Amino acid sequence: MSKQIDIDDLNIFYGDFRAVEGVSMHIEPKSVTAFIGPSGCGKSTVLRTLNRMHEVIPGASVQGKVFMDGEDIYAAGVDPVNVRREVGMVFQRANPFPTMSIKENVLAGVRLNNKRLSRSEADDLAEKSLRGANLWNEVKDRLDKPGNGLSGGQQQRLCIARAIAVEPSVLLMDEPCSALDPISTLAIEDLIHELKQDFTVVIVTHNMQQAARVSDRTAFFNIAGTGKPGNLIEFNDTDVIFSNPEKDETQNYISGRFG
Ligand SMILES: Nc1ncnc2c1ncn2[C@@H]1O[C@H](COP(=O)(O)OP(=O)(O)OP(=O)(O)O)[C@@H](O)[C@H]1O
Ligand SMILES: [Mg+2]
Question: Residue limits of the ABC transporter domain (predicted)?
């Protein structure tokens, strides 16, 4: 199920503004890749091109190619809706549907895809997804209670359960722990470790310890100055990036000497 991703000379625009320039990278299936770099360098922008969410922004466009297991997701005739089903996304702020029950939150994506489920199929899928998101034990006795009655960390795991219920191949996470306390953060990090057995995971994080803890490979992006495009500076094994990076720019950033 898990897919490899190949990004080939991606340039990403908001109107005339080139926000990201010339990004190429190969991401292995069943791996965790962290995107790090200063604010505004284009981490979220690159992430959103991987499931064709960038183009929903008015005026936004993409040049270059993105392949999932060799298939160009930007090829003519590819339905972006299918791409988004294959490539799930979890956002910075947990966004459960507030009036929906916990169970219906988990099933929301599946129902949106017009998939009909029998009562027992729905129960099984909800349980499997909640177990996959390490949330089952905490919510199994209140599946019919509203999703917004959960703690922030639980809500974030609920959103992960919702994303994995549609059985994607790739899971994109944009700073999924930035609104969480340290305990909930560790719970999500443990979960990411488990998720990579089934999914290709790409995570944006500002927390370098987190990148070092959860990822196999790390991509460092940087920006030369305001109004300039973001670039991929170095993409390497996570232990290399954090112990012995090839570029001075990477070293400066990870050691906090960023200017
Ligand atoms: N919807 C948008 N319309 C116009 N410009 C945008 C839009 N979203 C982002 N940008 C611009 O694109 C550039 C990259 O932004 P992006 O959000 O990808 O950065 P980031 O690395 O994720 O930053 P942060 O760490 O702050 O989240 C920035 O200059 C930003 O202002
Ligand atoms: Mg961002």
Answer: 5-248
